């Protein structure tokens, strides 16, 4: 326990610890003075008592030992031992971000490991972990759109909502326009200087009440920057489907409207990315993280707690014990 305490100790005046080098000199001085004071007369008739000792003989050096220990503790105390705790304060101007995710049935395709949906959820959570002061929300869409989590700085709650995303909870389809419009709706009242939507889909718009072109114009009107991600390999991907005989995997052609996604991104000030596997998807979110950096100011400061008080009490106790020994136990005259 003492070693753990010492590991966290720093000294305000560590140079005063050099005074401990005086201790050997004091020990030498005391030894020499004791030899000088001792008698050199030898009485043969008293040789039988040489090996016998009294309590006073045994304890006669204790006052010096106690004084020496007191001096050690005093030197350590005036060096001001302290414990330090470092604290960090993070302040800054965050960005309001909406993660707009496609949860249609095709997101269960297995060209990503284990499938597109789970791969998307993992990189989204990693993206959230990398942010510090941003408000981030979650919108999901398939044939319709839904706000799964409004913009928040409670990242634990947001991540739990991302993990809870499932395919089939909304009407199936791919309503890109509705998903984007709902995302912009969540940001339009934002006072942040930077508003961003990260829209991910694996298909072409085929549903919803709002056309993608209209949603794009709404985003431009509210100065919302849109990053778009097309998710899917080239060619065909295995898609599991539940049938009466069990799960059957069929090969479905990957159709991503890259022209539309590029147009939405370019006209709103964002970029379009194509993710063909888990690695490129992770890199895309990392790239967006670098493109949209928050203005963060970090200040560090340390708090010190004085730890010399126990030493002062110990010094007082040792000095009182020395006085008691010197004037009670070792006194020469009654």
From TrEMBL:
<dbReference type="InterPro" id="IPR024163">
    <property type="entry name" value="Aerotolerance_reg_N"/>
</dbReference>
<feature type="transmembrane region" description="Helical">
    <location>
        <begin position="308"/>
        <end position="325"/>
    </location>
</feature>
<dbReference type="InterPro" id="IPR050768">
    <property type="entry name" value="UPF0353/GerABKA_families"/>
</dbReference>
<dbReference type="Pfam" id="PF00092">
    <property type="entry name" value="VWA"/>
</dbReference>
<feature type="transmembrane region" description="Helical">
    <location>
        <begin position="64"/>
        <end position="81"/>
    </location>
</feature>
<keyword id="KW-0812">Transmembrane</keyword>
<keyword id="KW-1133">Transmembrane helix</keyword>
<protein>
    <submittedName>
        <fullName>VWA domain-containing protein</fullName>
    </submittedName>
</protein>
<dbReference type="Pfam" id="PF07584">
    <property type="entry name" value="BatA"/>
</dbReference>
<dbReference type="InterPro" id="IPR036465">
    <property type="entry name" value="vWFA_dom_sf"/>
</dbReference>
<keyword id="KW-1003">Cell membrane</keyword>
<dbReference type="InterPro" id="IPR002035">
    <property type="entry name" value="VWF_A"/>
</dbReference>
<feature type="domain" description="VWFA">
    <location>
        <begin position="96"/>
        <end position="288"/>
    </location>
</feature>
<dbReference type="InterPro" id="IPR033881">
    <property type="entry name" value="vWA_BatA_type"/>
</dbReference>
<feature type="transmembrane region" description="Helical">
    <location>
        <begin position="12"/>
        <end position="32"/>
    </location>
</feature>
<keyword id="KW-0472">Membrane</keyword>
């Amino acid at each position: 326990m003492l070693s753990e305490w010492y590991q966290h100790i720093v000294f305000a005046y560590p140079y005063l610890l050099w005074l401990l080098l005086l201790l050997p000199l004091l020990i030498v001085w005391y030894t020499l003075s004791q030899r000088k004071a001792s008698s050199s007369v030898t009485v043969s008739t008293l040789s039988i008592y040489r090996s016998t000792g009294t309590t006073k003989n045994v304890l006669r050096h204790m006052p010096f030992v106690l004084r020496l220990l007191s001096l050690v503790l005093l030197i350590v105390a005036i060096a001001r031992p302290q414990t330090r705790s470092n604290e960090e304060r993070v302040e800054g101007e965050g960005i309001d971000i909406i993660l707009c995710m496609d949860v249609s049935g095709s997101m269960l395709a297995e060209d990503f490991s284990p499938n597109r949906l789970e791969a998307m959820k993992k990189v989204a959570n990693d993206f959230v972990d990398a942010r510090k002061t941003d408000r981030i929300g979650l919108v999901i869409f398939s044939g319709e759109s839904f706000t799964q989590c409004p913009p928040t700085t409670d990242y634990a709650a947001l991540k739990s909502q991302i993990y809870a995303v499932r395919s089939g909870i909304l009407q199936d389809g791919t309503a890109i326009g509705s998903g984007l419009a709902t995302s912009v709706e969540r940001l339009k009242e934002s006072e942040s200087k930077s508003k961003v939507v990260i829209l991910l889909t694996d298909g072409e718009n085929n549903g919803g009440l709002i056309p993608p072109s209209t949603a794009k114009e709404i985003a431009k009107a509210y100065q919302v920057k849109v990053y778009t991600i097309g998710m899917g390999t080239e060619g065909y991907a295995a898609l599991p489907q539940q049938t009466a005989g069990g799960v059957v995997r069929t090969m479905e052609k990957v159709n991503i409207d890259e022209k539309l996604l590029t147009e939405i991104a370019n006209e709103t000030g964002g970029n379009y990315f194509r993710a063909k596997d888990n690695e490129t998807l992770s890199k895309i979110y990392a790239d967006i993280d670098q493109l949209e950096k928050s203005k963060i100011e970090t200040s560090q400061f340390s708090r010190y707690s004085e730890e010399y008080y126990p030493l002062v009490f110990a010094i007082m106790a040792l000095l009182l014990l020395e006085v008691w020994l010197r004037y009670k136990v070792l006194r020469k005259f009654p």
